[in-house]
Design goal:
The chain has nine helices and ten strands. With 295 residues, the chain is an alpha+beta fold.
Amino acid sequence: MSRRLIGAVLVSTVLAMPAAPAVAAGAPAAAPAVSTSAPTPRPTPTATKAPATKAPAKKTPPKKTVVKKTTTRTTAKKPSPKKPATTKTTAKKTTAKKSTAKKTTTVLRQGAKGAEVVALQKRLSSLGYWTGTPNGTYGYSTMQAVMAIQKVAGLGRDGVAGPSTRAAIDRGVRPSARTKTGRAVEIDLKRQVILFVDGGTVRMVLNTSTGTKATPTPTGSYRVTWGYSNGWRTAPLGKLYRPKYFHRGYAVHGVADGFVPGYPASHGCARVSTAAMDMLWKTTWLRNGNRVTVY
């Protein structure tokens, strides 16, 4: 019975399909009923979903480009104003130092003459380094004075007034005395200079060359015993110019120019130039009985 009913329904539907256009043409009121029943299967889900999925995919990617532009701008702006400012200031400072250094790089040595030599001699004399009378000629006495201040300042001992030596002269480098009272002559073996001290103050400095390691100058406190004033004296170990003895055969004496180096070279005596020895005989520094300290 059920199959028959199904067949009857199918027949009725088939018969109803050709009748639909006639009704739509004859009666306008029935037309909307046919249109509502027929288009129901047409609106598919695929037609509505396609535009919904494509729209958000297109809008999201262009927003990322804005973040990249802001980061590049901030990094480029920070270093640019600071770096050129520092390089300019350092360049100005170095050029200023170089210009001042050039003014003091004049090298003076034996044989030089002129006003600059006079200024050098006067400056050394004011510090107590004996140069003789300033005369504008860089002679052996000036060279000895330059060597003396080089020894006190701990510089190279060549007797040439170069930049480092002239800087020490400008600073006023002076040695200090060990004797605090009275008058004394101090022979400094380490620095190879002789100090003439009065009341704890160094009044004069001479370059000297004392005994070698094989023939050292004896250390201690002594007194001047006697001297030989008539020029050169022949001693067992050589000729001595106007020696002043302070301990047995050890003396402060003059030697020919060129034999007072910057290092110990004698047989135990303290060598000075002949001009310096003549000066000492005219003064009261090495009178008999005066104190001589060797250290």
